[in-house]
Amino acid sequence: MPVPSELEFFIDPGRCIGCQSCIQACAECDTHKGQSMIQLDYVDRGRSTQTLPVICMHCDSPTCAEVCPADAIKRTEDGVVQSARKPRCIACNNCVLACPFGVPKMNTKMNLMMKCDMCYDRSSVGLKPMCASVCPSQALAFGTREEMARLRPRAKPVNTFQFGAQTIRTKVNVMVPNDAAQEHIDVTAAMHEPTIGHEVLDDVFDTQVEA
Amino acid sequence: MTGIAEKTIRKAAEWWGTAKTSFLMHARGLEHHSHGVANVLGAINIVLASGRIGRPNCGYATITGQGNGQGGREHGQKCDQLPGGRDLINTQDRAYVAQVWGMAPEELPQPGVDAYEIIRKIDKGEIKGLLSICFNPVVSLPDNNFVRQALSKLDFFVAIDFFMSATSRYAHVVLPGSLQEEDEGTVTQLEGRIIRINKVVDAPGDARPDWMIIQDIAKALGRERGFTFGSPGEIFEELRVASKGGIIDYSGVTYERVEQNHGVFWPCPSETPEGVPAPGPQGTPRLFEAGSWNPIAKGAGPFYFPDGKARFNPTPYRGPAEEVDADYPVILTTGRVVSQFLSGNQTRRIGPLVDHYPEPRIEIHPRLADKLGIADGDWTTAESRRGTCTLRAAVVTTIRPDTIFIPYHWAGRKSANQLTISAQDPISKIPEYKVCAVRVRKAAGPPEHASVLEPQQ
Question: What is the residue extent of each domain of chain B?
Fold first, then answer.
């Protein structure tokens, strides 16, 4: 069965509290062989406690599949990009290096690329992927566009990204503020800028505190 | 006084004051001070002054540190308490509970002492024997070098625990207890909502539910009366009766009602005085609602005073028990990380959680780190008047430059509570985990514990 077309995935990084529930739940998905496919990182722990969950964006035209010499990565009709197929994957790492979002991971013990498959065993029967089913702040949310519009009136979904000269459209949406001007997100735009963190000294301390 | 800019405090007040609704929640941080009760009263004063209580989307709550932190303290977990929010020192309360337990009020003991005072009395030789259940003070109590010294002095120490904890190693006899997954019953969470815990697996080997072990001990001591329950459900039935008529009244709560309503909120009395409507199927989801009845005000008003009115409590400023000085110039504050739970006796044994946060780190602001020549990842020693602890530094701007932070979930030489002070709040007896004075320096090299892995590593 395909994933019902009205159900979509929404990532809302501003809501992530870094609780790691998604990581644990992901590892427990029946199709993930005990591995977690989610990357949950601090944006810049030195300056902020902000964390960011990364799941597969499920591109319309997936770079990982395009660079695969063994044709091991398949995108199903409903737009879900699957993990590499074990009989075909030659563990060459092309997909790991090519993905604009840094999603595929090489499982060196199994010589197999594994990645987020949107918990295909679950989402294809209308269930939420494991991560979205446990995320307490719904930074990872799976539902209809109408639900999201109702629950998050101040944010809008964006699913177009710019990576160098490449324009990427994805099945997964990222929530951005309503008043954000851009209609796409430039993946590398902020790569060389310092992270904007919550600077304790900006608002907490009037004066220099001598330690 | 706080180090927080006046304009920031004004901005927060503006936000709070102009909001239509607000809910004030805090966790243990506000409470872990030698003036923790005053801190909490200050928070409650803000809620009362703005009238944001007893109506939808408004209120106040404190997030407890443990799964049943709320339920335990409602019904006699501390040795000055009786079920239903009753007091062991109150004559009427003693008489009621003694009658439920089929004994004379004089047979009930007088109030005991708090957890830390028990340790002090052991050290002084006034307490010779100890029975503890899943208590890990060697990790979780402040100044734990003193705790270790005291526990070594016990004539007889029995620990009931589900895993061999750092504290159980001091026991003469360790009885294998059970986890909540291996037993059933109820817990009460921060909303005052009673929820069911169901058994999913049998305890392995000779491990048994804690309540059965307690009953066996009572039998062995020749005092079986009152300890002959056949199931946790029977114990709950007694709790219903014992809490009846108290502030925290569970008498109308049954397992069926809890299961049918996704939990039941106390107070939920089985019978109410004439003219007072019985609570709905869910009990009392919101306290202090206008027009509500309670056993103290008896309809005079929504608050638990004879006139039904709330009280403001003045909270004059008191500093911490130990101020920083020239010798110990840095504030140490301790707390939690998301991957670990309490003293880590469970979570330090779970591989993926160990991977998330393998070891405690000393969080230090770059300004203080620069001054001390400490870089991110360097072995760093924090030393108080009570102990020292060498851990890797995490240089982050999310901590104040006059303060370092160490999470407390680890045992032995990784334990932050080697440094903390055993000062307590005079009312709640909560220890001052959040403030003590330390000095910080770059360590000469890795400590001995650097080569010792956690069980799952």
Answer: 6-62, 69-112+177-265, 330-451
